[in-house]
């Protein structure tokens, strides 16, 4: 059997931590040549060195971002756009119908908004009876202090993060027992733990960025990742998320857990998530729903990113993807590590 026709795929946020593995998996699909076009708001993104073409674009939150990606797709002859960053999703979702025959792997604007608004996410989780932290949506130092005390501070630690954020950006633990001297002398810069009074001092007394003050979820971290069709999961699995380093997990192990898949299916159906999804838990609590691709545990016989693109361009059906579920191997592990490239700037 000969190779399939070549494809050109745009990968946004190509400076993201999982970019190198993602690009490698797309190239090693075993069926066709894929020409990869990376975009990023930084010219120092690794995609510049690993992709066949690279373009600097506005940040994902910039109103001109969708137009820039659409223009690049037209110039490069792209068949699909695969966004990696949460910040890229809203603009692309609102403009996906303007891309013509180019498949943009993003859910509807409503689904993106509901997932990105963490307060709305938690309200949904509680309404569905799914395990989620108790929370308060507030703005300003006075409201943060009141919410923290309502949730049990100082008897128990609590945490907060911006209502609209990605990853661990803006996340802080409020812990009255934190040892500031130990942090200063023995820990790396960037500790997420602080006392309530320190946070209140840094925040405006009222107003400012909306924050979620939450019960602190504890326990092991797990995610459910895969491909959805707006009604259900067609292919996916849970995995662990371990060995945290600088806010990034460095080790992952595929799990077999029907209960987690049921939780994920409920959320996919309720939010109408399509294409890639990533649902994150700490302990038993769902803490984040990301309607985008995230870290993948790759298998030589199950290439999730490539299969997601094939589905988006109409080359594989949902039923065919469902039939591939038996290939998922519990215990398959991924170990992330740092690498580098060298180049001359002059």
From TrEMBL:
InterPro entries: ATP-grasp, ATP_grasp_subdomain_1, CPAse_ATP-bd, PylC_N. One of its GO terms (molecular function) is metal ion binding. Gene3D superfamilies: 3.40.50.20, ATP-grasp fold, A domain, ATP-grasp fold, B domain. SUPFAM superfamilies: Glutathione synthetase ATP-binding domain-like. PROSITE patterns: ATP_GRASP, CPSASE_2. Residues 122-318 form the ATP-grasp domain. This is Unannotated protein. It comes from freshwater metagenome. The lineage of its organism: unclassified sequences, metagenomes, ecological metagenomes.
